[in-house]
């Protein structure tokens, strides 16, 4: 029995990671989605409090951001803001789910469909925080910097803090990662490209009245758009692999410290 308990959170072998069955969002221990890798008890009040702090931080950030930068609804056309919304949805969902787990464990661990949605959302958010940050600081920020203090604060809040906070979060949680799950953030990236194309065809304008949302994703210049799509695809695979490495590091340390259940 002790051996089974020890192996419950053991990661897959690298060979098994590439089996197509692991494209699915299946994990045999659903309670891992509501626990920290480092807690000793079945339930942890410290982890619950942390979950709500993260949720409040991104939830209030999103609400205030939408109020300040709404700009007749154009706030919703930018990938940065899609990512910031996803940060809030992921962190708030995580806090709610851990709260339900503390109140009634059985009522939450048996909701397999909901857990799959949360897992996909968490992984997409984790990868996209890095994609958005890398592209912004390397391609956009050098050409267009914040005009005032408020813009500067939200600039860091939306482009700088998410990859740091959610990577740290990935080191704290207990749920697994899969190499082949890069398909889920890739799906969101494809959805955004389709959205920008439809927006362009229908004559949509950005907040400055231009016919494109991002210069590097200007559908009036197909070659530039194709280059951007290829670059994002490569970044996406690299960031997914990197975060999978963070997961393996976490379970390796947890195994050595006797925290791998």
Describe the fold and architecture:
The protein starts with a helix and ends in a 5-residue tail after the last helix. The radius of gyration is 20 Å and the shape is globular. The protein has helices spanning 2-7, 14-17, 45-68, 79-103, 105-109, 112-140, 149-159, 161-172, 183-201, 222-256. It is an all-alpha fold and 261 residues long. It has ten helices and no strands. Mean pLDDT is 93; it is low at 1-6. Helix 6 runs antiparallel to helix 8 and helix 9 (183-201) runs antiparallel to helix 10 (222-256). The longest helix is centred in the last third of the chain and has 35 residues, at 222-256.
Topology at a glance:
Layout: H1 2-7, H2 14-17, H3 45-68, H4 79-103, H5 105-109, H6 112-140, H7 149-159, H8 161-172, H9 183-201, H10 222-256
Summarize the entry for a quick read:
The protein has helices at residues 2-7, 14-17, 45-68, 79-103, 105-109, 112-140, 149-159, 161-172, 183-201, 222-256. With 261 residues, the protein is an all-alpha fold.
Evaluate the radius of gyration: 20 Å
The share of residues in helices is: 55-70%
Q: In whole angstroms, how far apart are the ends?
A: 12 Å
Question: How many alpha or pi helices?
Answer: 10
**Overall number of strands:** 0
Main features:
65% helix; mainly alpha; disordered N terminus; single chain; 10 helices; 261 residues; globular
């Amino acid at each position: 029995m002790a051996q089974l308990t020890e192996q419950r959170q053991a990661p897959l072998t690298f060979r098994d990671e590439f089996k197509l069955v692991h494209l699915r969002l299946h994990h045999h221990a659903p309670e891992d989605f509501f626990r920290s890798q480092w807690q000793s008890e079945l339930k942890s009040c410290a982890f619950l409090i942390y979950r709500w702090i993260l949720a409040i931080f991104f939830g209030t950030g999103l609400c205030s951001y939408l109020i300040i930068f709404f700009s007749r609804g154009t706030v919703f056309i930018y990938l940065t803001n899609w990512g910031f919304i996803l940060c809030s949805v992921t962190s708030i969902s995580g806090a709610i789910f851990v709260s339900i787990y503390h109140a009634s464990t059985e009522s939450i661990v048996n909701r397999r469909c909901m857990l799959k949605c949360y897992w996909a959302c968490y992984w997409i958010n984790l990868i996209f925080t890095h994609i958005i940050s890398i592209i912004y600081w390397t391609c956009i920020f050098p050409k267009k910097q914040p005009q005032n203090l408020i813009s500067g604060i939200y600039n860091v809040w939306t482009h700088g803090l998410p990859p740091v906070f959610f990577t740290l979060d990935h080191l704290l949680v207990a749920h697994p990662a899969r190499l082949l799950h890069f398909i889920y953030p890739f799906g969101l990236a494809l959805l955004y490209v389709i959205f920008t194309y439809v927006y362009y065809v229908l004559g949509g304008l950005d907040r400055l009245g231009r016919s494109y949302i991002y210069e590097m994703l200007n559908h009036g210049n197909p070659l530039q758009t194709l280059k951007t799509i290829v670059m994002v695809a490569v970044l996406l695979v690299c960031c997914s692999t990197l975060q999978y490495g963070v997961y393996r590091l976490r379970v390796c340390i947890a195994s050595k410290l006797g925290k791998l259940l």
